[in-house]
What does this fold into?
Amino acid sequence: MLHLEYDITGLRGADYNPRKIDAEDLARLGESIRTLGLVKPLIVRGDLLVAGHQRTKALRAIGVDTAPVFVLSKDTTTYDEVRFNQLHNGTDLDMGGEDARIPGGFDTKGYHVVSDTAKIAGNMRAPGATVRMEICDLIGRYGSWGGVVATFSGRVIHAAQYALAAKMLRVPLTVFAIPDEEEDLYRSFLDREYGVFCYDNLKRDTFIQTLAQLPRLREGKANASALYERHVIPWLQLNRGASFIDFGAGQGDYFRRLKGEGFDAYELEFFRRKGMNRTLDGGATQRMIDRMIARLRSHGRFDAVVCDSVLNSVDTVEAERAVVTMLNFLAKPGARVFFAGRSKEEIRYYLRKTVEFQKDRYRRRLEFMDKDGLSGFYREGRWFFQKYHDDADVIALCELAGLKVVTFKSDRSMWQVEAVKERELDREQVAEAIRFEFELPLVGDRRIGRSADMLAVMETIFADLPH
It folds into this structure.
């Protein structure tokens, strides 16, 4: 329900709001509100501000204590609150080409409701079908919750995807109407982005990242690893006596297959689950660490290191740095290092789609990246993260990890690298990565707790290096 004069003085911000704004952008947003009015209502549930945190800051900064607000029902789930927040914060969700028009004829500036949304016109095959279907899903659950900005004659200049969603569902559409001659003025403010996505303030329960693990070899070829099939296995077949470790082995399907075929295989997974259920198998992780340490002490480091899709399931830049550092440390000089992840273009592609795709059980419909390529969404009561890379990011990671690229392949969805360890990393950088990885937090107050053992191995290895 829309309230045009809602008291915002007692609203509290949501902990999950994934955006931040600097002083300059906040001042510009305040200028926009003073000039245009608040054309995009806030979204609240009770006294909780679900969406519109930056505009609320700007309103308070200019001394305004009432504003247009959509009030959600009290039974709105936290999961859906987060979806409202991210959709509302996605200020660039109009992709262009929507060409949305509503029945015009307005003669006063401000809020109106269009009831006959069957008469809305627009390009239903415009890019942004993913966004539109997500909007439709929330309207279907909670009723009309958004609105558009349109000229008196009916041209939609902001939130055209919402207008098309209202047409699809035949639900009333809230419109902030403006004179046609003011279109350019309004566009000059509304086309700006105020603030950026930033997930720094969200609570990390890193063990939840285990949910990214796939049953690689248990469902035909659906989840087969391109890295293993195209790069790792062919190399191992040419180097039958080589040792390798799968760092971040997930459910361990490829490790078990190759171990069974007689390869000198090792694995390490900090968040191994018992089967495909949600219980972590801490004992299995400790046994993997024991076996790896024994191998390092008896035979030294590995001829090859594999890291399949781990870098797209880290939840911080610090974690990413620790992973690539460990790839270097576990590899002997001149060893092969294979790693793969997901491309930033994958998110951009799905945002641009003109027709909604079939949603499978692993696919989220909509994700928003921050400046570091991290996306976050709410899953099973916790924040789950994915990290995406473009080609330049991957090359920078290789340089950071002391690796020389042999083969680099990338497409719209994935990238794969085969590299050679070219140089050792600094001892303190390695020690920092070990302390990070081998003290990862588990459920409750427990941790992996094996950094001391790994640091002792590190000291032995570095002592044996030529000076």
In short: The domain at 2-197 is CATH 3.90.1530.10 (Conserved hypothetical protein from pyrococcus furiosus pfu- 392566-001, ParB domain).
